[in-house]
Amino acid sequence: MRYTFLFLILCQIIAGTATSTEDFRLNFNNAPLWNAPAPSLEKAKKTLKVGLLIPLSGENKNIGESILNALLLGLYKFPDTNITLIPLDSGATEEQASVAATQAINKECDLILGPVFSKQVAAVKREIPKTINIISFSNDLTKAGDNTFIAGYSPHEQTKFIIQFLINKDISHIVGLLPGNAYGKEVARIFGKTIQSQVGQKTQVYFYDPEGASDEFLDKLSVVLQEDKPEAIYIPDADRKTLTLVSKLKFKGLSLQETLVLGSSDWNKPLFTNDHGLKGALFPQIKMGASDAFTKSYQDAFSTPPNLFAELSYDLIMMINTLYKKGTAVCLDAKEITTESGFQGTRGRFYFDTDGSVHREYALMEITGNKPKKVQEQDSVENLIVEKYRNLFDVDYSGNNNESDFQDVD
């Protein structure tokens, strides 16, 4: 992704310095400080330094650029905020992330945003004092806790949402069909834990080869499914091999009219939603808030649509801006981050729990072979909490400078 002329102007306005695109891309060992315009004297407060640990080189630099774009867009929305972004190249390895974390400490950062990849989180935690909070873009909740918050779209929460929906529908005979890798085993753990706590049953999970389920496995599985007759099958993985898996199971006798098939939010892409073989299947999706308005603002500024990392980054900088302006401490503490009232995001409300996990509002969507349709609203605990405070925190994503009170990809 290339930075557009508008992006260069935006950078110059925010940073107060004319830094060329080439310099910006190449000189990450001594990364520039990107500031929002200084506040007026009567509102002056000590600068909040945010260390930004993102990939700014290598094959993943497009992720880092999209994150930085969204953060700059968010800062530009509030010109009287005294927040400084300090971008540091965390690359893709644990070693690079560790070096970037050390640089953040040397630059006296008050808060850390990043890293992106779950394998880097532990390395960063070793370098960052527990007095400084870390908000990672990862979705690996096993890395949460202490001073670390995980902001990515987590399969844990989606799994709980799916199971709770089924239980509310008096469906308790649920089978998990998962890839036999680290992701699948982690989902299986939360799948089993949730079913055990909600319905008191043992987990029924089958693991398939992540490279593709063999015919032998499918033959055995189809026999088990026909004999056992589960009410629902949960298949969260989302690539072409998943479609092939479902297609072969249907060929061997699986009926989507008799057995409800559910996926993850990763199913919300044409590859799945336009597949007529999946008609009737369900998947959770982050509720749409002001996402369309943010998408337009981002595309107008950078001539490209935002990805999920950009949406997530924009939400976080809006949250940080709000907490910084309301709080008295420069270093945002855990109590402020975990305020139960939550925050308004581009795709609905979200809040952080004291265990470092993030919670969002989900809606259940049905695959129709064309545009997915909403099934129903889910009155989860998370939704009830944010609904209680709905009128307290509203954000304008239209691009106006109105102040508010407001797929970890490994």
Could you give the topology of this structure?
Elements: H1 5-15, H2 21-26, E1 34-35, E2 48-54, H3 61-77, E3 83-89, H4 94-106, E4 111-113, H5 118-127, E5 134-136, E6 148-150, H6 155-168, E7 174-179, H7 182-199, E8 205-208, H8 215-228, E9 232-234, H9 240-251, E10 260-262, H10 270-273, E11 282-286, H11 291-302, H12 308-326, H13 334-337, E12 343-345, E13 348-352, E14 358-360, E15 362-366, E16 373-377, H14 381-388
Parallel strand pairs: 2-3, 2-4, 4-5, 5-6, 7-8, 7-9, 9-10
Antiparallel strand pairs: 1-3, 11-15, 12-13, 13-14, 15-16
Stretches with pLDDT under 50, minimum 5 residues:
1-34, 36-43, 377-410
Number of strands: 16
Q: Given the helix and strand composition, which structural class is it?
A: alpha/beta
Please report the distance between the alpha carbons of the first and last residues.
20 Å
Please name the CATH topology of the largest domain.
Rossmann fold
Large-scale geometry: elongated
Main CATH class of the largest domain: Alpha Beta
Count the DSSP helices.
Answer: 14
